[in-house]
Specification:
Layout: H1 11-33, H2 40-70, H3 74-95, H4 101-108, H5 111-123, H6 129-146, H7 151-155, H8 161-182, H9 189-211, H10 222-250, H11 252-256, H12 262-273, H13 280-296
Helix pairs in contact: 1-10, 1-12, 2-3, 2-9, 2-10, 3-8, 3-9, 4-8, 5-8, 6-13
Length: 300
């Protein structure tokens, strides 16, 4: 499998790359906000049910047109549906019950490295020195943001059960990133996503029936319903389609490094929505992250 290390970044591709981390940062905030009201499997099932209904009017035609090609890539389609659609978010929601947001963001930042490592081990992808440098620089920026600019915060982090769960989610996302690249760009991404979501819902349904025996869902609050609508539409449909298209256009490693922008958008959203104070360390971290992203995407 070949990556695309030298394809230039046009503004449309840049938008595709920045939109997913923005919407996924909102997903982390939204998921934490309704953690107590909606358990992990139920949240995942509702999320992808909403996504399915939103996709259906637009995706049914390309799905029916391309379905004859799905069998040739059945294992990649099944694998991406389970890893990137069903398991990733289920494990994140589950892990956030027993770990901090700071730990979750740090673990999330290992995705580009996992993509690079798995790409080398399983697909013999090469990693340009500028890409490796960019990954390390952007990771440094992430650590500046999540540690509030204090090295002692990183040195005193304690890892819990939730950290192991979230790290497993990151492994799944890295595999999703590599496998979605294997599905030809000629197969329409909207129809493909409809197929992936259907597979994910079939996978989640028995888990939901098991979870419903021991947990209670609280949907009586309109605020919870609005959050579910956001989770089901923006980080699910729009972000995943944009990310899948970006991976197809510029390659898995270069696309995955933009995930490091999540703590930037998380800080901005926290400032705007939660009225939290914006600090100098956040600005320094943002500049460092964007420097790393620029280095990883240099075309010469």
């Amino acid at each position: 499998m070949q990556d695309n290390p030298v394809a230039p970044l046009h503004w449309r591709i840049l938008l595709l790359l920045l939109l997913p981390p923005l919407l996924w940062a909102g997903n982390f905030i939204a998921g934490r906000a309704i953690n107590a009201a909606v358990p992990p499997v139920t949240l995942s099932l509702i999320r992808w049910s909403i996504a399915f209904l939103c996709l259906l009017p637009f995706a049914l035609k390309p799905f029916l047109r391309d379905r004859v090609h799905y069998y040739a890539y059945r294992w990649h389609i099944f694998g991406t549906a389970i890893t990137g659609v069903a398991a990733f978010n289920l494990l994140v929601y589950w892990g956030l019950h027993t770990t901090s947001a700071t730990n979750g963001i740090i673990l999330n930042s290992f995705i580009p490295f996992l993509v690079a490592i798995f790409g080398f081990l399983f697909y013999r992808q090469t990693l340009a020195s500028s890409q490796l440098t960019g990954l390390l620089v952007s990771l440094t920026g992430v650590l500046v943001v999540v540690s509030h600019g204090d090295l002692q915060v990183l040195l005193t982090l304690a890892f819990a059960e939730g950290d192991v769960i979230i790290f497993l989610a990151m492994v799944f996302w890295a595999l999703y990133t590599l496998w979605v690249k294997e599905i030809p760009a000629a197969i329409n991404r909207t129809g493909l996503m409809l197929c992936q979501v259907m597979i994910a819902l079939i996978f989640l349904l028995p888990l939901y029936l098991w979870e419903s025996q021991t947990t209670i869902v609280h949907l009586e609050n309109p605020h919870t319903l609005w959050i579910l609508a956001y989770i089901g539409i923006f980080p699910s449909v729009i972000a995943l389609l944009a990310y899948s298209k970006a991976v197809t256009l510029i390659g898995s490693v270069r696309a995955s490094v933009f995930i490091h922008a999540m703590p930037i958008f998380g800080s901005v959203l926290s400032t705007l929505l939660l009225r939290e104070t914006f600090h100098l360390y956040q600005l320094l971290g943002m500049l460092t992250i964007f420097t790393g992203i620029w280095l990883a995407n240099r075309t010469h």
